[in-house]
Amino acid sequence: MKLLVVDDNTIVRLGLRRVLEHVAGVDEVAEASDGLEAIEKARSFGPDVVLLDVRMPGMGGLEALPELAERASVIMMTSDDDAETIASAIKGGAKGYLIHGNLGVDEVAGAIATCSGGGTVLGPGVADKLTVQVASVGDKARPNPLTARLTEREAEVLDAAARGMSNQDIAKEQFLSARTVKNYMNSAYAKLGVHSRAEAVLLWKEAEDS
């Protein structure tokens, strides 16, 4: 597997390289210091996964994201935890969003494996950040408008996912198997016209706050 690390901070790139040396399946690692260089490198290097910072001099990560997302699975790996930035990254095609902090080899390796396999990863606290644009107090005055397009169980499962719960946690809470939860999620994706958990959660939260 080929990885492209994109960050304007040389120390961050070096640190990620050292982490990736311990990730199974990673064969080659290339680097870029901004979005424009990342696009050029992606064309020649052909990465499977791109670890992309958000804010960089010149062309930033969000500007480069659409083209990079057409060529590889892109995981935003940044210290930027702004809710609007996270939403923009998901809409732009990012398969994952991780916030710098306590990211170790296992977390990075898990994110790479999940995203390269077509899945989506929202790091600790990221799902919660999507709710900060509109705060709700007390009980909801009305159901999420998207519930009209889903079955009751699909809506319950997606609502739990939007609260940051994993499939395993949802399964325990709703007395279902993890496989059944996944099936409900996939069914909801099709009805909502989205292709990933991150897109579904974002759409659900936007509808909830509208």
Structural description of this entry:
The structure is a single chain. The chain has helices at residues 10-20, 35-45, 61-71, 83-91, 105-116, 126-129, 152-162, 167-174, 178-192, 197-209, and strands at 2-6, 28-32, 49-52, 73-78, 96-99, 121-122. It is α/β, with parallel strands linked by helices. Helix 2 packs parallel to helix 3. The longest helix is centred in the last third of the chain and has 15 residues, at 178-192. Mean pLDDT is 86; it is low at 133-141. Residues 143-208 form the HTH luxR-type domain. Pfam families: GerE, Response_reg. Keywords: DNA-binding, Phosphoprotein.
CATH class of the largest domain: Alpha Beta
Helix and strand pattern: EHEHEHEHEHEHHHHH
Strand content: 5-15%
**CATH architecture verdict of the largest domain:** 3-Layer(aba) Sandwich
Keywords: DNA-binding, Phosphoprotein
Protein name: Response regulator receiver domain protein
Organism: Actinomyces succiniciruminis
InterPro entries: CheY-like_superfamily (IPR011006), NreC/VraR/RcsB-like_REC (IPR058245), Sig_transdc_resp-reg_C-effctor (IPR016032), Sig_transdc_resp-reg_receiver (IPR001789), Tscrpt_reg_LuxR_C (IPR000792), WalR-like (IPR039420)
Helix-strand blueprint:
Layout: E1 2-6, H1 10-20, E2 28-32, H2 35-45, E3 49-52, H3 61-71, E4 73-78, H4 83-91, E5 96-99, H5 105-116, E6 121-122, H6 126-129, H7 152-162, H8 167-174, H9 178-192, H10 197-209
Helix pairs in contact: 2-3, 7-9, 7-10, 8-9
GO molecular function, one term: DNA binding
Domain Response regulatory: 2-115
Domain HTH luxR-type: 143-208
